[in-house]
Amino acid sequence: MNHHNFHGNDIPHINLKPDMTIEDLIDVYSSTGFNGRQLGDAAKLYAKMIENDSTICLTMAGAMTPVGFGGIVKTLIENGFVDWIVTTGANVYHEDHFAWGLPVKQGHFDVDDNILYEKEIVRIRDVFVKYYETLEIEDQVIQQMFKEKFDDKPFTTAEFCNMMGNITKTKAKFPEKSFVTTAYEYDVPLYVSTIKDSSLALNLAVHRLKNKQFNLDFVREILEQAAIVYNSQKSGILELGGGVPKNTAQQTGPLLDQILRKDHGGQDYIIQITDARPDTGGLSGATLQEGKSWGKVQDSHNDLITVYADATIAFPILALYVLSNQKPRKHKRLYKKLDEYYKSLQNDAIKIPDKFAKILKENKINLD
């Protein structure tokens, strides 16, 4: 695209007024520059994804729920603005504290952690969690949840979280304070991209030592995720941070094209909120445009917006904007469609191009 001209919109002399709405504020952001402009454009792209009835994936890295952001996710699910989720185990584990009424408090970052340890206080930056009254009780809850579950067959993390949402809904003191429960209620598949790297898996270790087997079907899981994208007219991602959740959602494109030969092309829209740098080569900071070379996105020139900001600042603004100007959508209820979508991939034959055999021969690679 050629931006080497002087045809852009005029930069306004911003005039804020007491009665301005979130829509007005987003228009202000979009009319400025730097990451303020990116944030404004990202909010409008999120609205576009909703208007075009895209299948929307929310990815969350890090620990967003200890600061209460699970409530925002819950509201977006309820309005049909999030159709499936990929997150860390930490976000699922800590979200459950609120449902069971376990204490999580504002603390401070400028502390002596030796003293906190003696007082049995666990710190997540400036959030305090009680060791016994919160974490130990939560551990017991999860251990009891899965004491007799998944004995007879392999399972995915979507099934794991669906089961957790079901139990929390029926047993917890405040089930309305859990986006995991809301995902269960609206059939939103909730995947934990690296479940073994979280307290969810640590609590399964107790049962494993008693010879109970847990057989996670991670291959089925990645096929389900690709099948969601494959069966969507339009597909987009809202990424909070980077890490494994970001890659899990984006690798659906390479699985469909590079491995399964579907000639799909990847995501139509992606919004990324990150503080990671692209020049280090890490996935968290990798530009969305770079993803085109992998087949992760349809077009490197359009509908890809990166906001370099703290997600705890930018995410509520994006969410409030679409909640204010978009009508609730009919829920796609993808969890109940996963088997159907999986079979659609299974039934479509993999087409191996002729040039593949030629390349193997030229490189003297014999796989027989």
DSSP helix fraction: 40-55%
- Looking at CATH, the homologous superfamily is Deoxyhypusine synthase
Reading the helices and strands in chain order gives: HHEHEHEHEEHHHEHHEHHEEHHH
CATH topology value: Deoxyhypusine Synthase
Arithmetic mean pLDDT: 95
Largest sheet report: 6 strands, parallel
Number of strands: 9
Q: Give the C-alpha Rg.
A: 22 Å
SS field, number of helical segments: 15
Number of domains: 1
Structural class: alpha/beta
CATH class equals Alpha Beta
What is the terminal-to-terminal distance? 46 Å
Sum up the overall morphology in one term.
globular
Q: Strands across the major sheet, in which order?
A: 6-2-1-7-8-9
The low-confidence runs, each spanning 5 or more residues with pLDDT under 50, are none
* Architecture (CATH level 2) name: 3-Layer(aba) Sandwich
**Residues in β-strands, percent:** 5-15%
